[in-house]
């Protein structure tokens, strides 16, 4: 039998191509390591931080009246692509009148807070609890979660309800795969999203191992908010964004400084993944009306469909539902709405 030189080359070429393809796939799927704050290759630590029991650090910021003088202590949980440096437009007069102390913090992987490779919906509640304990703000406190920062509030309602004096979920995140949602409702709400967002959330939910690749590839559009697609904002949102552009807030450059995967990507994978519980599993933490839970939803919100949060509040009647007719997703960044959120939370 005679073998041609070409035939003899086929096997090694095939092997080389296979190895090369596998190597490319591995690099495409594997996110880069985070740049930990305070490490030799990482950004400097520029914020006060507490050390958690697992060795991670959480960065925080205090505002309002001194904690020793406060009547109400509120932990504020930021949303997607935000940080502890967000500004709530409540007047000094209101804060002084109500004697409110605010505790803001960078969630895992954001800003100056260490990433959490074991991050889950459940871990978010225990981060809040340990932060409160380390800073000795008291046995009970209030929580406000904004947008994607609301899923940690759901976690607090599930895992540490005994620590809560009250809770507000402002334009709260929605997981379209919650079992409690009727198929027609979740499908209709999901279909209202931009196609690129639908695909991004599907990848995060069904194939999270591909999420870094999906968010990094250039062939198909991924998440609209990161692409700067302004179609997701209502008219009132656009007016607020215009004001922000004229006076940018501090700390924006630090939000993703430890890596986009550990901050933004992991946030989406956790929130849109499979939860350890369903919202309908939650039990009223205030059966004797010693506190209250609120959902605030903008009717004009194009990021979070109001139909889902309206449905949840109907099925959980102990949640006080507030639907603001002319507001969009940035509802709380209008002074009148922000002050209404605070008053309802602490005075209800």
Automatic annotation (TrEMBL):
UniProt cross-references to SUPFAM superfamilies, sorted A to Z: alpha/beta-Hydrolases
Annotated keywords: Membrane, Transmembrane, Transmembrane helix
Highest rank taxon of the organism: Eukaryota
Transmembrane helix recorded as keyword: yes
Residues annotated as transmembrane: 6-26
Residues annotated as domain AB hydrolase-1: 74-342
PANTHER family: ALPHA_BETA-HYDROLASES SUPERFAMILY PROTEIN, HYDROLASE, ALPHA/BETA FOLD FAMILY PROTEIN, EXPRESSED-RELATED
Name by which UniProt lists this protein: AB hydrolase-1 domain-containing protein
The species this protein was found in: Gossypium arboreum
Lineage, uppermost ranks: Eukaryota, Viridiplantae, Streptophyta, Embryophyta, Tracheophyta
């Amino acid at each position: 039998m005679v073998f041609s030189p070409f035939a003899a080359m086929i096997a090694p070429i095939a092997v080389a191509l296979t190895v090369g393809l596998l190597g490319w796939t591995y690099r495409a799927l594997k996110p880069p390591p985070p740049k930990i704050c305070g490490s030799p290759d990482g950004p400097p630590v520029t914020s006060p931080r507490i050390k958690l029991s697992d060795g991670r650090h959480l960065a925080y910021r205090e505002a309002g009246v001194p904690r020793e003088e406060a009547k109400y202590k509120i932990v504020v949980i930021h949303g997607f692509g935000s940080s502890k440096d967000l500004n709530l437009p409540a007047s000094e007069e209101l804060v002084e009148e109500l004697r409110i102390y605010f505790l803001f913090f960078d969630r895992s992987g954001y800003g100056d807070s260490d990433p959490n490779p074991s991050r889950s919906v459940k871990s978010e509640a225990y981060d809040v609890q340990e932060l409160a304990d380390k800073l000795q703000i008291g046995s009970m406190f209030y929580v406000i979660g904004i947008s994607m920062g609301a899923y940690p509030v759901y976690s607090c309602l599930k895992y540490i309800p005994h620590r809560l004096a009250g809770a507000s979920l402002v334009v709260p995140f929605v997981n379209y795969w919650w079992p409690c949602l009727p198929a027609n409702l979740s499908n209709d709400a999901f279909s209202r999203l931009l196609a690129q967002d639908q695909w991004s959330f599907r990848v995060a939910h069904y194939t999270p191992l591909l999420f870094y690749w999906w968010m990094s590839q250039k062939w198909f559009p991924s998440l609209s908010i990161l692409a700067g697609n302004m179609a997701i904002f209502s008219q009132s949102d656009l007016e607020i964004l215009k004001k922000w552009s004229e006076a940018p807030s501090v700390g924006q450059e630090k939000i993703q400084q430890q890596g986009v995967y550990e901050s933004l990507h992991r946030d989406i994978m956790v929130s849109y993944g499979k939860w350890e519980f369903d919202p309908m599993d939650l039990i009223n933490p205030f059966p004797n009306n010693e506190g209250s839970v609120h959902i605030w939803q903008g009717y004009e919100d194009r990021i979070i469909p109001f139909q889902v949060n309206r449905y949840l509040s109907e099925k959980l009647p102990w949640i006080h539902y507030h639907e603001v007719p002319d507001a969009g997703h940035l509802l709380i960044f209008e002074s009148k709405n922000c002050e209404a959120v605070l008053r309802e939370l602490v005075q209800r």
